[in-house]
């Protein structure tokens, strides 16, 4: 079984986000960038399926600037067999929308014919939570989003999904798109020897032009501002004082 | 042109609060709003939706394939109806987050997730970067597909007369996925997303057994129970209690954070609460920077005392 894992390069989740005062966007110059945390989980799952002998090949794909090579190297070090960089823009501030990403991925799926795509549930920069579902729609495939457990059987996957009321288990025919939620697994740390080995693995660069997909945004971002900030309130010294404040000052009890 | 709002329906029951809030979010569009109820058995949900203020008509699709919120049959039905609408919206829930992007892709339009404000027919606000920034976007698509972040809107009232209910046919089953089972704990507690008071516990609570302290306080207050990701990962609390960037977004009148440090990913899910109380033994915990009332101390003495005094 062949698995394709799309991985996005995003601002590291530990970095404090700074909004530019002129409303033009978020400061991405000189900040630490990493693989989207959900994509690490997706990659880890693919690697485990390979270790169990269920998957035969794992392809990592990133769409964006040439800098995305660094996270593809991480994916290779985690255990992907090869990587594809779709060189779509030179501008790190240009966020390619999920619809465009999904259309590009659909092209690569036609070419690579994977049996399964495991994406992250959500990119932590745009917080869209859309690409996997869009890809499944474009391909006419089934989808199993927000997965916390995946079992592969003959011709289908049984996926446990994190939903609002708890968990839902569904069966989805392969090929399918699955998106990874936080509790699917705990991604491994990449070891130095694996980082060295990854340098020898193939990383193909694919120009956007070769895929014939228009990535012009459908949503024009006219302004990005900082939300109104809460400030610290007061210290209370005891449970009694807390109850008094909640009753008589805040009026919420 | 009218707006299509997908109702949130669970096991045939309308999530009234979520739908009522989405209706008020959409009201600035000034258009008729049709509510689509998709369910296995949805007559009761449709009848209830018909009594919400601002509903033009209710479209009821009842079919076995629609009983469990599977994305493929739901998206196929929505796409079949889309031609008559300029906007297709839904409260941002696990169900709609699964379905709406698929609908949008099939219509070749972008989805606009977690809308917090509708300026006009084309212009919307949405949070990005775990709520650290708010974008205003103008959509150039012919149909706007919108997920509504309901926590920031008040619900509409009951209507003075019921809107008509019309039946629509489901699409043929695409047969791509099937439901196996739901693993859901039924509880008498208020729903986390719409509760007036939420009490949440984090890693500091220490164990599944000790999490009962949090639950007892919540029950005493008539509150919903929430949790941080750490508490869920460690098995102290079920996944559907997670509040945050990638969990539920809540904005109750009162949010009590117990043994939660206040990581930005957690704040993303609760910082719009009216009053925030934080209880933590570390006086430098980041949660105190946004709390209205901060109580520094050991939760194992504070919480039982608080529960007893209320
Ligand atoms: C992609 C991604 C998505 C995420 N999404 C979410 C999300 O949706 N929601 C979320 O919550 N997190 C999310 N996180 C995780 C987040 O970054 C934090 O790791 C998490 O919120 C920490 O949980 P916590 O505050 O319970 O634990 P900790 O940070 O470990 O804090 C525990 C706190 O308990 C206090 N404490 C300990 N003992 C006591 C005691 N006896 N009495 C009083 N206080 C005590 C400590 O002082 C400390 O402040 C996400 C992370 C990533 C990478
Ligand atoms: N530019 C990209 N390159 C590769 N994968 C992406 C890209 N954008 C999104 N994805 C994938 O789609 C998932 C969901 O992203 P989003 O829909 O933007 O929240 C991510 O976790 C990735 O797996």
UniProtKB/TrEMBL annotation, chain A:
One of its GO terms (biological process) is carboxylic acid catabolic process. Its cofactor is AMP. Heterodimer of an alpha and a beta subunit. InterPro entries: ET-Flavoprotein_bsu_CS, ETF_a/b_N, ETF_b, ETF_beta_N, Rossmann-like_a/b/a_fold. The keyword Transport applies. This is Electron transfer flavoprotein subunit beta. The electron transfer flavoprotein serves as a specific electron acceptor for other dehydrogenases. It transfers the electrons to the main respiratory chain via ETF-ubiquinone oxidoreductase (ETF dehydrogenase). It comes from Novacetimonas pomaceti. SUPFAM superfamilies: Adenine nucleotide alpha hydrolases-like.
């Amino acid at each position: 079984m062949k698995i394709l894992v799309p991985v996005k390069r995003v601002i590291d989740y530990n970095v404090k986000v700074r909004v530019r005062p002129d409303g033009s966007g978020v400061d991405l110059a000189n900040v630490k960038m990493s693989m989207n945390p959900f994509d690490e989980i997706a990659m880890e799952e693919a690697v485990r399926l390979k270790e169990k002998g269920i998957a035969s090949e794992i392809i990592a794909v990133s769409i964006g600037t040439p800098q995305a090579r660094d996270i593809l190297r991480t994916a290779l070090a985690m255990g992907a067999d090869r990587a594809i960089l779709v060189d779509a823009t030179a501008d790190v501030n240009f966020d390619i929308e999920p619809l465009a990403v999904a259309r590009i991925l659909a092209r690569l799926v036609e070419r690579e014919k994977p049996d399964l795509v495991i994406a992250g549930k959500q990119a932590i920069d745009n917080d869209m939570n859309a690409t996997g579902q869009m890809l499944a729609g474009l391909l006419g495939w089934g989808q199993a989003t927000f997965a916390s457990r995946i079992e592969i059987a003959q011709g289908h996957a049984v996926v446990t999904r994190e939903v609002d009321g708890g968990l839902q288990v569904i069966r989805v025919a392969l090929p399918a798109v699955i998106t990874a939620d936080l509790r699917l697994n705990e991604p491994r740390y990449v070891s130095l020897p694996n980082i060295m080995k990854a340098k020898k693995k193939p990383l193909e660069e694919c120009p956007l032009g070769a895929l014939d997909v228009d990535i012009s945004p459908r949503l024009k971002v006219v302004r990005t501002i900082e939300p109104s900030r809460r400030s610290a309130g007061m210290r209370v010294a005891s449970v009694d004082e807390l109850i008094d404040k909640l009753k008589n000052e805040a009026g919420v009890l | 042109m009218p707006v299509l709002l997908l109702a949130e329906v669970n096991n045939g029951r309308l999530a009234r609060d979520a739908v009522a809030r989405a209706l008020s979010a959409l009201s600035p569009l000034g258009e008729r709003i049709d509510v689509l109820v998709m369910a296995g058995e949805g007559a009761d949900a449709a009848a209830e939706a018909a009594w919400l203020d601002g509903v033009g008509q209710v479209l009821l699709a009842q079919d076995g394939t629609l009983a469990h919120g599977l994305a493929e049959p739901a998206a196929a039905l929505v796409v079949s109806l889309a031609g008559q609408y300029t906007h297709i919206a839904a409260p941002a829930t696990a169900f709609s987050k699964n379905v709406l992007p698929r609908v949008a892709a099939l219509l070749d339009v972008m989805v606009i997730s977690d809308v917090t404000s509708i300026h006009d027919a084309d212009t919307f606000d949405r949070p990005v970067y775990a709520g650290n920034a708010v974008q205003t976007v103008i959509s150039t698509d012919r149909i706007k597909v919108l997920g509504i972040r309901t926590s920031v809107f008040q619900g509409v009232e009951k209507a003075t007369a019921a809107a008509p209910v019309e039946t629509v046919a489901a699409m043929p089953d695409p047969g791509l996925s099937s439901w196996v089972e739901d693993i859901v704990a039924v509880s008498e507690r208020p729903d986390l997303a719409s509760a007036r008071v939420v009490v949440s516990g984090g890693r500091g609570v220490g164990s599944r057994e000790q999490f009962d302290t949090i639950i007892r306080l919540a029950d005493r207050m008539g509150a919903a129970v929430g949790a941080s990701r750490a508490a869920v990962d460690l098995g102290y609390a079920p996944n559907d209690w997670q509040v945050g960037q990638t969990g539920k977004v809540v904005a109750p009148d009162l949010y009590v954070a117990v043994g939660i440090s206040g990581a930005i990913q957690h704040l993303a899910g609760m910082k719009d609460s009216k009053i925030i109380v934080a209880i933590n033994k570390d006086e430098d915990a980041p949660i105190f920077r946004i709390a209205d009332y901060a109580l520094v101390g050991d939760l194992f003495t504070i919480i039982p005392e608080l529960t007893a005094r209320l």
